[in-house]
Hints:
Layout: H1 8-24, H2 28-35, H3 66-82, H4 87-95, E1 99-107, E2 115-121, H5 127-143
Antiparallel strand pairs: 1-2
Helix pairs in contact: 1-4, 2-3
Amino acid sequence: MPDRPYTDADLRTEAARQYLTATEDPDYMGIGEQMDQAFIESTVVDPDPETGTEPVTGTTWDQLTSHDFQEAQRGIRRLLDGAADVSEWAINLGADGLEPSGYIVTLGPTERPSARLHFAFGPDMPEDTRIELVARLDRILTHGL
């Protein structure tokens, strides 16, 4: 008899369920509250020279007109409503010790792809191995080589 009345798979399933619940039921007002004083990425002019990430100047969402702010808020809500349920993937990647990377292979037109592969690797996999793996897979999928 096991030490506990549940399996690791049970834990993963429940974590995925809760993760999905958090993304399926966002509070509409919470969206606006999170936008408040956050920079609009495309308006950031001077990234912080030391970190390269923190914006120094730009427009924040709350600087928009009420109409534009509400339209943006509704647009974000539509994106959240249409977001793919990747909760089980996310939980399993973390449980397996894998870390998402920025590497992506897209098949089909970029404006409406037929498939998109996102990669996650173990933290000990060397960067050159990651690059080679993604490049080979891309060549195979796009050229059959």
